[in-house]
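Hi C.,

You asked whether I'd gotten around to modeling the 184-residue construct. I have! Everything is below, sequence then structure, no commentary in between.
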Amino acid sequence: MHNPRPEPRPITLHPVGTVHNNITKPTLVAGKDGLSLQGSHAAMVERSRSTGTEVSEIVIREDLEDILTGIEEYSHLVVLYWAHAVPGERRTLTRVHPMGRKDFPEVGIFSTCSPARPNPVLTTVVRLVQREGNVLRVTGLDAINGSPVIDIKPYASEFYPREGVRIPAWMQQIHDEIGRRDRS
């Protein structure tokens, strides 16, 4: 039977690795009044486009190196990481204007890709450039330097829908403004 108010039980996650790159600040900052861009819209667009070509390293804990066995056979990976730069008190936002833009409708946080979430687990698909021991070199990673990596999965397009995918007009506008990042 459905319990409308389940008692929350804490869970424990242990990072499997860490992101190393030149991104030192998050694009979006969560404040008590919502989201705001750090810098100009043009700078955000340029940064979003550049993540498609800039190489980041994901350094997996040495004691877990064996979990990477066979990963070189994949061209793309799904990386789940923790948005560690979002302070706990900023994870209470429930509604935001996407990208901090007042010209977009205010929506629930789960309707966005915002890092200001109750559990700031973020995900992105990256291109695997190289594996060297416990280090993965990838492009397309939008995590900031030092972000804890909590999981990596192979990307297999057959697991994801390709037809009939619907997104809101404001999300399509963001995609159009940024342009498709080169992850091929």
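If it helps when you're writing up: Residues 17-156 form a domain with the Elongation Factor Tu (Ef-tu); domain 3 fold (CATH 2.40.30.70).

Thanks,
B.
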